[in-house]
């Protein structure tokens, strides 16, 4: 059974930092793109940052220079270091992982899995 589990959310004051982590576990071959998305209160889910297996990063303009995404493939984990947090960063943060599985014979296929989300609240 595959699981994708986030951790590290919480309540912080403006200007402070948080580090989120997300680990995938289960019977899969490898992980392609991993990333973070967020859903602010009353709004739609939006991209925060993604990182490919080769290390290419795609980030929202709203977090450039403040948030850093990284991954540790030995631990099947993606991280999000969030600095200089602002009240508008308040949201439920979700992790997404594109996992690769054995198919028939030599075939491989990819499926996207999501974590359950972790709350980040930035408030004074």
Mean pLDDT level:
97
Helicity, in percent?
under 10%
Compute the separation of the termini in Å: 40 Å
Rg is: 15 Å
**How many runs of DSSP E, i.e. beta strands?**
11
Question: Main beta sheet: strand number and arrangement?
Answer: 7 strands, mixed
The SS-based structural class is: mainly beta
DSSP strand content? over 45%
Q: What's the helix-strand series? A: EEEEEEEEEEE
Shape: elongated
Outline the low-pLDDT stretches. Answer: none
Describe the secondary-structure layout.
Elements: E1 3-7, E2 10-12, E3 18-25, E4 30-39, E5 46-51, E6 57-59, E7 67-72, E8 77-82, E9 91-102, E10 108-114, E11 118-122
Parallel strand pairs: 2-11
Antiparallel strand pairs: 1-3, 3-8, 4-5, 4-9, 5-6, 7-8, 9-10, 9-11
Offer a few descriptive terms.
about 120 residues, mainly beta, four-stranded antiparallel β-sheet, about 0% helix, about 55% strand
